[in-house]
Amino acid sequence: MKEVKIETTLEVYDAINELPKAIQDLMNTAIEAREHAYAPYSKFNVGASILLDNNEVVIGSNQENACFPSGLCAERTAIFYAGAKFPEAKILKMAITASSQNQVTDKPIPPCGACRQSIAEYEIKQDQPIEIYFMGAQGKVVKSNSLANLLPLLFESSVL
Ligand code: THU
Questions:
Q1: How big is the chain by its Cα radius of gyration, in Å?
Q2: What is the pLDDT of residue 58?
Q3: Options 64, 75, 123, 131, the catalytic residue
């Protein structure tokens, strides 16, 4: 038996204003997107914004459905839109913010497992890491230098 240790390094910023202006702008775009989330069931609004290497910014918010599994998370809404609209562009950065309608969300909310797997697909496809920033409605912001860093042992197409 051999023990394998997997390490992840994240940067944690106390507040959004500690980040470079360009990242603040990207996060503010995600906050705007979050405000347009359609979340009547969970009352949990999530917004995502993506910066592409062609300088375009693509946004997404969670879109829920009365048939719950038919809804989609903000991150996948955004990344699928980016893939559909700008298939040749590389994804440089992604900002994510979440805010409950019931309580103050003051801790960073990371993308769910399914979203991590979906983002991983694009990171592998473009062979370039995607920087990911995530926060709640206020407070700390976490930065990951890549998606792989957030999803060790990810499933990839080479095994198919
Ligand atoms: N949600 C996201 O949009 N992104 C995540 O990474 C986690 C969860 C949404 C899905 C659902 O609309 C609501 O948040 C509660 O799960």
A1: 16
A2: 98
A3: 75
